[in-house]
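Lab channel / #folding
Pinned by the channel admin:
"Please post every new chain as: sequence first, then the structure tokens as a reply. Keep commentary short and put observations after the output so the thread stays searchable."

First post following the new format, from NK:
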Amino acid sequence: MIPAIFAYHAPRSVPDALALLSQFGDDAKLLAGGHSLLPMMKLRFAQPAHLIDLNRIDALRGIREDGGTVVIGAMTVENDLIDSPALRAKVPLLPEAVMLIADPQVRNRGTIGGDIAHGDPGNDHPALSIVLDAAFTLQGPQGTRQVAAADFFLGTYMTAMAADEILTEIRVPAFAPKTGYAYEKLKRKTGDFATAAAAVVMRMDGGKVSHIRIALTNVAPAAVHATDAEAALHGQPLTDAAIEDAVAKAEAACDPAEDLRGDAAYKTAMAGQMLRRALRKAAARCQ
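Reply from TO:
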């Protein structure tokens, strides 16, 4: 199908983009990689009167280190995350997990900020950003603010970002020594959304779990931060019984929508299975 008529804007700076957002209000949409918005426009599920393209704002691209934090521009494409020496050295979960997102063509165009700001529970970056303890920098007419990833995702296509704000960067703390990590994802075919996926970041001290973050993809209206599962493991040896207790608590937090990927019971069980695999892989990397 053909989108409805719209005016196209290509600002060269964040202030110019914010001015356009303020001018056009609810009639405007931001364009990043376009993989989500453009199909919705073609189907006329979205009919913005004004499209504000962020692709010419160079300040929104790039990866840099800021002390013990890796800072990622929101318009950085997925393939640049895979190729980043800083991420491979400091936050290796992210480039490894991005290899599981869609396919090379999509990763060459899709941006990390677009994935996050869209608020789709099927996207991978929400769960990844939660376990990475990431923070998002939002810029609006009143200035900038930071929101923790764990507080950002509110529901399906719902986030803590205001309508007049732009996500400008993602700030990720570098891993401490001997941090284990894993992202296990079940999908039907290359390029598909996850049927279910589990992200884990952990550390062990004296044979016990000293740090643990767990999040799940596509098994609820928003990425699931499995805090009860984390609490079940923290301070405990990672025994089979402890893993099963954590899996049960994570599954209890699931509320998946039924679709062609499976019914609720199947998706919940697959989330548990992905978590078992992720916990064991992450534990093996705590060396």
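NK: Residues 264-284 form the longest helix (21 residues).
TO: also worth noting, The mean pLDDT is 95.
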